[in-house]
Amino acid sequence: MWQFALAFYAKEGRATKLLQAQQQHGLWINHYLSYAFARQQGLGLRPANARLLRMHSHWVKPARYWRMSCVGLPELYAKAKAVELELERQELVLWSLRLHQGHQKLSFWRHYPALRQSDLAIELDSWLL
Question: Least packed by Cβ within 10 Å: which of 39, 75, 85, 124?
């Protein structure tokens, strides 16, 4: 799933829009990427479990805040970014354990009601087709 996520995220304009959705509406980008992967593979995706939620709130988010506090300190920023990316990779491993056989109609946007009502959701949703 990591390779899929890197390729999906790297397409022109996607990183900017996903980060915008994260900052403005609380989008959990790895959740979105896992959902996109599940859709592409014809799989279902179970909701986040306690392990995933702990990983995200106790490791990934603090690493992100640490990286953001290192702006203006290039060497430390690079190290913080590497740590954050590795934690996000590990988080995607946990998301991959939430995949299951049997495609089901998933209501991804119900997790993000404010985002669902924005124009940004329309664009993000179009990437899933």
Answer: 75
